[in-house]
Amino acid sequence: MPTRTMKAIRLHEFGGPEVLRHEEVPVPVPAPGEVLVRVHAVGLNPPDWYVREGMPGIPEEFRPSFDLPLIPGTDVSGDVAAVGAGVRGLAVGDEVMGLLRFPVLMQGGAYAEYVTAPAADLARKPASVDHVHAAALPMSGLTAWQYLIEVGHGHPSPFQEAPHRPPALGPGTTVLVNGAAGGVGHLALQLAKWRGARVIAVASGAHEAFLRGLGADEFIDYTEQRPEEAVRGVDVVLDAVGGPTSRRFLPAVRRGGALHPVYFGEFDDEENAERGVTVTGTQVRSSGAQLAELGRLADAGTIRVAVDSTFALEDARAAHRRAARGHIRGKIVLTVA
Predict the structure, then answer these.
(1) Cα-Cα end-to-end distance for the chain
(2) What is the pTM assigned to this prediction?
C-alpha cells in the first residue's frame, strides 16, 4: 500500500523565513492516546520564529535540541481524521483546537495538512468560532490564562525557583498590560476585565480604538509617553513584551503588588524585595481543559480573538516576514486548504 502524503512546511536548516520549505511528506500516524487532526488553520507564535532561527539569544542551558528536518508550529484548529488507541471522548469528524506538545517538543508539527495531537492537548472548537480564530487562541490564550487566572500545573519554571501564583483579580484591582495589542496582551486585557479589574492598556497609538473596544479603561501610547512614568500604584503589571527592559515597570507597581514578564527578563532580587514587588513568570503548557474554558468564554462573546492577517500554508515565508515587521494586532494565522 503506498504511503499517504501531505503538504507541510519544513526546516532543513536554521535561518530567516527563506529556510521554510513547502514540501510533500508522509501523513503521520497517531500513537496511543493521540488523534490525527486534519488541519484547517494554524496560529503563529514567537516560538515558531525562535526555533526557525535556532533560538538565538536563549541561554544555552535553556536551549532545547532539535532534530532536522522539522515541521514547525504548535497551534491548530481542525477536525479529527483518525483516533488512536485508548482515546475517549473524541471521534472522527469532531472539530477541535489545541496547543500541541508545548513546551515538551517546542514545535508540534502544525504547519501541515495533518498533524498528530495528544488528546489531552485538545479542546472542542466552539461552533460559533471559525477555524481561523480558533487557531489564533491556544498559545496566547493559555499564556494569559496561566499568568492571570490559574497556572493549572505543578511544573517548575526553568527560568526561576519561585512558583508563579496568578494574582487575585477583582473590583478594586488595577492591571497594566504592556504590549496590549498583541496575541497575549489583547486576551489578557479581556480576562482581567472578565474578573472585574480596571485595565490600563499600553500600545502604540494606532491601537487605541481597538483596545478601548475590548474594554481598556485607560490607554497609554508608549510612543508619546513612558508608561512606567505615567502611572503609579497599580496592583499588577503583565508585561507581554518582557525581556531585559521589563524591570522598568517596577516603580509603577504598588508595594505588595506583582510584575509578571511573559518573556523572562533581568531583575535584581534585592531591588524587588526593597520595593515589595513580587516578580514571577511561568512557562505556558498545553492544556485541553483550560483551552475548553477559554473556548466557552469565546463562545459567549466574553473574549474576542483578533486576527492580524492570514496567509495560505504555502505562504509561510510571507507570514514570518509579516511577524518580523512587528506591531501585530492579535495573531497571524496560516490557512490550510
Answers:
(1) 25
(2) 0.96
Residue 2: what pLDDT? 58
Query: In this structure, what C-alpha cell is assigned to residue 36?
Result: 490525527
Query: What is the rounded CA–CA span in Å between residue 305 and residue 97?
Result: 14
Bridge partners, residue 124, by sequence:
96
Amino acid identity, residue 95? E
Architecture of the domain defined by 143-279: 3-Layer(aba) Sandwich (3.40)
Q: What is the pLDDT of residues 73-127, one digit of tens each?
A: 999 999 999 999 999 999 999 999 999 999 988 889 999 999 999 999 999 999 9
How far apart are the C-alpha atoms of 290 and 227, rounded to whole Å? 31
Which of 3.40.50.1100, 3.30.460.80, 3.30.450.20, 3.90.180.10 would CATH assign to domain 5-137+305-335? 3.90.180.10
d(CA 240, CA 175): 12
Retrieve residue 69's grid coordinates. 528536518
Report CA-CA distances (Å) from 44 to 35, 37, 80, 276, 310: 21, 17, 21, 36, 10
CA–chain centroid gap for 299, Å, is 19
Contact between 127 and 68 under an 8 Å Cβ cutoff? The reply is: no
Cell of 85: 488507541
Residue 69: is the preceding peptide bond cis (ω within 30°)? yes
Strand 234-239, strand 253-261: pairing: parallel
